[in-house]
Amino acid sequence: MPIIAPSLLASNFLRLEDECKMLNESDADWYHLDVMDGRFVPNISYGMPIIEQLRKMTKKTFDVHLMIEEPERYAEAFKKAGADRLTVHIEACRHLHRNLQQIHSLGMKAGVALNPHSPIELLTDVLQDIDTVLVMSVNPGFGGQEFIQHTCQKIRNLRRMVHDRGLPTLIEIDGGVTVENAAMIVRSGADVLVAGSTVFHSKDPKATIHTLKNIA
């Protein structure tokens, strides 16, 4: 079964306590927390203070996705706020290997995100140092976008690369994940499904999470 990581970006910010209660009672495995700075992506979301407050409401894994420039400046702060896993964008890191070393030294799992235009071959020399590869299946910055179809081939190629090296690296998919396409994404080789609008805009979010968790 895939790991389900609902994205709080699509939640009702006026009812965050209720949204967390729902996630705690659901089959969700992780909280996916999208941090945007208005520079790397054309949007601004939330930062450490919000994550710190959310941390008090759950023991589930905090999967923090940094869509920001110079992520190394803030890694320690996000660890203190409660991040268990920290993902940085390869496009925002001049010295990616150093970024991964820093995240690991702080006691977090390290992830690397790839935008739709970035080939998986960019990870050739650091794949062994990555705990999670987050494949963006939309252009980052906004929720509710449509899944980019050629992402499935990208997932298959990445799964082959991970398998051939015998690595435990997880493949995470973020963007446009729905109940309708989740099975196709998992069959392509994904381990983790990030779902925002699909979960929080559904009539029964817990049922939707259950469906995604048990997707065939």
Written account of the structure:
The structure is a single chain. This protein is α/β, with parallel strands linked by helices and 216 residues long. It is built from eight helices and eight strands, in the order βαβαβαβαββαβαβαα. An eight-stranded parallel beta sheet has the order 1-8-7-6-5-4-3-2. α4 (96-105) links the parallel β4 (85-89) and β5 (109-114). The longest helix is centred in the last third of the chain and has 14 residues, at 151-164. It starts with a strand and ends with a helix. The mean pLDDT is 96.
Question: Could you give a quick summary of the protein structure above?
Answer:
The chain contains eight helices and eight strands; from the N terminus they run E-H-E-H-E-H-E-H-E-E-H-E-H-E-H-H. With 216 residues, the chain is α/β, with parallel strands linked by helices. It has one domain (3-213): TIM Barrel (Alpha-Beta Barrel).
